[in-house]
Amino acid sequence: MVASAHESEAKLKVLLADDHVRVLATVEDMLRTDFRIVAAVTDGRSALEAAKKLNPDVLVLDITMPGLDGLKAAQELRRLGSTAKIVFLTVNEDEAYIAAARTCGDGYVLKSRLHSDLRVAIDEAIAGRFFVSRRTAEHHKN
Q1: Which residues, 6+ apart, have CB-to-CB distance to 78 below 8 Å?
Q2: pLDDT confidence of 10, banded at 50, 70, 90?
Q3: DSSP class of residue 47?
Q4: Architecture of domain 12-132 in this structure
Q5: Distance between alpha carbon 83 and the CA centroid of its chain, in Å?
Q6: Residue 39 is inside which H or E element, if any?
Q7: What is the pLDDT of residues 104-136, one digit of tens each?
Q8: pLDDT tens figures, 53-65
Q9: Distance (Å) of CA 57 to CA 3, 68, 100
Q10: pLDDT by residue (tens digit) across 23-52?
Q11: Spatial contact of 82 and 107, defined as CB atoms under 8 Å apart
Q12: Which residues fall within 8 angstroms of residue 142, CB to CB, at 6 or more apart?
């Protein structure tokens, strides 16, 4: 019992935010073995508040959420001095979104590549490298 408590403390804390409950459940299932999920919320404002209270190591943020979108939530966290790694999760393949994500985040994962790319993006972010999913329409290199 002591080992599992210690193991839980050693895991990086991850906060998830996506307005689609099925996506949240999928991401939580994918990550819970290797990370400690500290919160799963459905909007940017809740993500911002939870991040301030829980101090996660990593945030996985949907870009398009009601109220406060993921980019604005990330920008506000950076303004407040957060050093958490931020990996964006999105359906948007537009270069302008990728550029915006680079200014305040650490990774950009397309939902269509969630299963193959999310864990890689988190690992890359932790290592200090920005990861971008390959686009589906064209082969986009990081």
Answers
A1: 104
A2: confident
A3: H
A4: 3-Layer(aba) Sandwich (3.40)
A5: 13
A6: strand 36-41
A7: 999 999 999 999 999 999 999 999 999 999 875
A8: 999 999 999 999 9
A9: 21, 21, 21
A10: 999 999 999 999 999 999 999 999 999 999
A11: no
A12: 130, 131, 132
Tokens of 30: 């994918």
* Residue that is written with structure tokens 């959420």 in the block: 65
The residue to which tokens 């209270």 are assigned: 53
Of how many residues is the chain composed? 142
- The token duo for 65 is 């959420």
Q: How many alpha carbons fall within 13 Å on the CB side of residue 18? A: 20
In DSSP notation, 99-139 reads HHHHHH-SEEEEGGGHHHHHHHHHHHHHTT--EEPPPSSS-
What token pair was written down for 54?
Answer: 């829980």
